[in-house]
Amino acid sequence: MINYRLFIAVVLIFNSTLLGQPDRTTCKINEIKSNLEFLASNELEGRNAASHSEKVASLFIASEMEKYGIKPFGDNGTYLQSFKVISNWYDPSSNLSVLNEKNEKLFSLPLGEDFAVFRDQPLRQDLFNIPFEIVFAGYGISAPEFDYDNYKDLDVTGKVVMFLPGEPYSEDENFFSGSVPSDYSQFIGKVRTALQKGATGVIIIPEGELIDFWYVIQKQTLEEKMVFQDSVQPSSSEIPPIGLLSENVLDKFFEGEDFEYAELEEMIQSHQNLPAFKFKKKINFDLIIKYEEKTARNVVGIIKGNDPVLKNEYVVMGAHFDHVGMMRGVVFNGANDNGSGTVTILEIARRLTASKNNKRSVIAALFTGEEVDYLGSEYFIKNFPYPEDIVGDVTVDMCGRESIDTLFIMGLDKSNVEYERLIREANSETVNFSLITTEKYFTQSDHNPFIKRKIPGFFFCDNMITDLHKPSDDSDKINYDKICKTSRLVEEIVYKLANLDHKLSFAGE
Asked: What is the pTM assigned to this prediction?
């Protein structure tokens, strides 16, 4: 087991010895690089929220803030802001057991390998470890206006319904919108239909995008989920199990049934009507959920304003420093997601502390728990005593990959015209990125809890998809010059916000 205190001390000594005193005018690219290499090292085990490695990362970030002269703004005069969470995960022995008609086990599909479950809502555990009959319901659609019903003459009460993604093929735009997917193709509507008809669970057969994203679905199944200690959801919010099979087991699963999977595939390709039938096999959701109370930590510092009045207003610049941990012994280092944003905020905070030219106070917030529904940023803003005094939020979530001349910006439609003009002026006056605006991932970062409270905010990202949430997101792929460019732009935006003579209004107000 590595001595983490010694490891951090060595990194700090290395930084201060190699780089000397902080330069107050330029980007310290070597320091950024060494900080990111530490945060994205295997020794930090993926920085999963509320883990030991998250604690190590938070202490390291706090020590960097102290070294730069950034004042603590966490609990009890420290940099750390701690909160309790309830963590839950599936025991590694969990699986989908496939049984014969006598309830004797034929084979098992290990959870996270050949079988996955959707975890957006808690599952009804009273439906675990019970044999259930299975019915195949084609596309799982009941659409009376098109005289189409996969459930016709099919009793699904108390059974698990299995269906395919998509909807019947048609070139007639008056039948399921023709070649354009209609609302009936939506996954959530199909699940709702099955449950309304009395199903006790759902199994989805993978096709198309579900096959392409199987790796992501596997990983999400095995990840820890967390909620605030005081917000555990009531049992009324629980839903029956919703599972997904790997394409690798479909032939085996359908073997010996009324229709083999190869036959169904042929029907799909030739646009034939799909049959509905009851399986001879049964299944058992052999799932075990573990729970544990844990402590998570944000790291928060402040560069106090120099104006006697405006210093009591705040600009928040933030990034999440957590990542997704490990899976089956493999470390997900999260160099770009979001080690890059973390070191960017640290670098800006260093420069602002050195210059001392901000009228408003600037909060440097490194959040945990972004990967589990933005718990850290939600906790921060929920417990901030004067949210009405926050004039704006700037979030950086991945900025070290893709083109050095391009940066994506999400959330401008939730900012007012003046904020957008300020951002574009800052860009043209500094690094002149090609800024690409999109709302595709608008809610998917730590600015979202601010937006929900009508605080103007947005986030920058590089739109890196290739290595997102994969073990290959490593520091050797990072473009440190792009991080420096991003830091210069964000610093200028924060500086302008901190020195405006008025507050920005929220979009639409």
From this structure: 0.85
